[in-house]
Every structure is written in structure tokens, then in C-alpha cells.
Amino acid sequence: MIFAHLNKTINDTNDLNAYLASNLPEVYDLYNGDYNVILREQEAIEEFILTKRAVAYEGLNFDLNYNKAFLSLLVDFATRLGFSFCIHQLVNVIHRQNLTLGSRLEAGVEYLLAPSNKKLLECFSSVCHKLSTALIEEEETLQKTLISFANYYGKVVRDTSTLFIHQFLEQVHTCKNNDKGHFLHHPFIDGLLQINPFELASSYSYVQDLVEHYLGRPSLQHSSATILQMEFGTTYSIALGVGPYNFQKNI
Questions:
Q1: Domain regions of the chain by residue span
Q2: Which of 52, 91, 163, 238 could join 56 in a cystine, given CB atoms 3.0 to 4.6 angstroms apart?
Q3: Percent of the chain with pLDDT over 90
């Protein structure tokens, strides 16, 4: 339990810097690991972001790559888990330290900072543009882009109503029909659209289940979820970047 350990042992910036200098790969491994493991740490992650800002991570020397990478990982954790209030804390640090995020992380920050359900949907085009930019300029494969979009959809499914979910899905179909947001044509997105959030009591878990399936990991608690059987290992899937492989660590 990495973050539970950090919450108990990190008392100031020096403590955290010493830990990260030697142990950052452990944090990467947690993020790149099974979602079930991340869920077991979600309360500790939230506690760390909210309580260790002033005493620890805000004062890190972000000229050091491992410290900057750690802050990016905290943003990644917050977007995967849908921690809007945590994003506020992290963005404050980013602005105060004059740091910049890549387009993919900026997309997650944008929708998590949306102050209302209406705004959450209104940023759809901007989020898709940022994810498309990330795919062209930052990412080596589609994987992170697709997972980031799934997190966005999961946020809508978990925190809004059927009206807003329907409007979101309409925007996805419109973009696909207009040939915009090329990553939206990926089979993984088709799988997301096959999940019926109006009938499933725990539809957010089904979204995460599909993510785990795409990454080649065991299902979550809803093993009976209907999941599109995506192509792995075919010429088409290789060209699109489909397949179970680890996240790149060059954030």
C-alpha cells in the first residue's frame, strides 16, 4: 500500500524527495497495474493529494524529472479515479510552479474542473481536440488516449443523469459521422458505446471493466459484463495500437 505508507511516513518535502529519488518506479507500477489494486488505494491517494500538498509535494524541486513525473502521475491517478477536488489542488501547484501539462493530461483537467453537468458536456469538443493533439504530438500509441477518453465517459456516466449521458453519446456519434476525432473510430470506443448506462446499476464499473479488458487484465467485480471482443494481434489492430501492453513511462 504505497500511498498509505506515504501518508504515514512523509512529513515534509525532504522526506518525499528522498522517497521519489529511489522509489518512483513503484508509483509507476501501481498506476500501470490492475485497477482493483488502485481501488484499494484510492482513499489513501485522495488523502495524500489533499493533505500533503503544503507540507510535501508543492515544495518539490520540479527541475528534477522524477519530481515532475510524480506530479504528472498524481494528475493521472486523479483523472482515472474521477477526483475533481484533488484536481483543483494539483492545478494550483502546477500554476504556482509555472509548470505545463501535456495535452492528454490537460484534457482530463478540463473536464474534471467543469463546474456543472452542462459544462462537462460543453467541453467535449475541446477534450477530444486535446486528446487528438496528444495522439499526434505526444503519445507513441493510442492506448493512453483511449483510456483518457474512457475516464471522461466514466465521469459522465457516474456523476450525471440519463439526459446528459444521452447527449454525450450523441456527440460521440456526431463526431464519428463527421470523421472528427479519429481515435473515436477505434474498436475500443465501439465497446464503450455498447455498454448501456441506462440499464446497468453499476455502469461506471462496467466502463472500468472494459478498460481492464482492453489492457489484458482480469475483470473487476462485474465479470458478466457484455464487452466487445476487440481484435488483438491482427494487422489492423497492430496498426491502430490495439493490444494488452504496459503504459509508457515517459510522462
A1: 1-100, 140-251
A2: 52
A3: 69
